[in-house]
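Lab notebook: predicted structure, single chain.

Context: the supervisor wants predicted structures on file for every construct in the current expression panel, including those that have not yet been purified. This is the next one on the list. No modifications to the sequence; it matches the entry in the shared construct table.
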Amino acid sequence: MTNTYQIFLISDSTGETLDRIFLSLKAQFKNIDYKVNSYSFTRTENQISKILNLAEKEKNSIILYTIVDNNLAKTLANACGKKRIPCFGVLGSLILSFSKLFNQRASHEPSGQHILNDEYYNRIEAIQYTMNHDDGNLLDDAQKSDIILLGVSRTSKTPTSIYLANKGYRTANIPLVNKNSIPEFLKKNPENFCVVGLTTEAERLVDIRKNRITSLKNNKNKDYTDLEKIKKEVDNAKDTFRKYKWPMIDVTRKSVEETAASVIKIHKIFSNKKNA
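Prediction complete. Output recorded below exactly as produced.
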């Protein structure tokens, strides 16, 4: 019988960083059963003690933590050593290494990445803008976008847009239904905007759309899931991207994060050319 590992994620902030790190870590190991126990805003020895009591009662407990307070981190590590619970500090050695490189002491301030500075407010503004310009909405105002995503239905435009917004990019996404879907300002000056076309394999799109139709309990629109019509739809979209010389990304086997990373690279190239 396979053992189940109890993963305790302990953070002195929201835990977002630790969640992402563990997500990348677990992807490297297949056929492992685990249960995640997350604890955010852990900033006192009493909180640490309670969590360790729970971990000690479980079998195969492993602790990962992001705690920037040196004393609290040492308390956790020492207690884990005594209880023989595997314990790994994710940021500790990095902070120390960078402190030496920069010749500067780290602030060791919890939630330091969430300081309400201009960058934070710009990100919030980008998220609001992106939500307002989802699925072809407010096209007249889309010229203010940092990035515009185009693609046929169900090519991950919305989740990619939201991910980009969280990175601070004001993103509009426009569904390609027909040749009239593209706003006039893009047709007239296609090179003046960072436009990225999203495409995917037709066969994969059929499955995605069928699942969508099933979830909506709407089986009336058969063209929406017809393979031959979808192939033509995808081909027309590619022809449109080529016509206006817009870069395209095949999202068939890409996660949203991977797609967004490719979009950001394209945006950097576009910005460099524009500012040259």
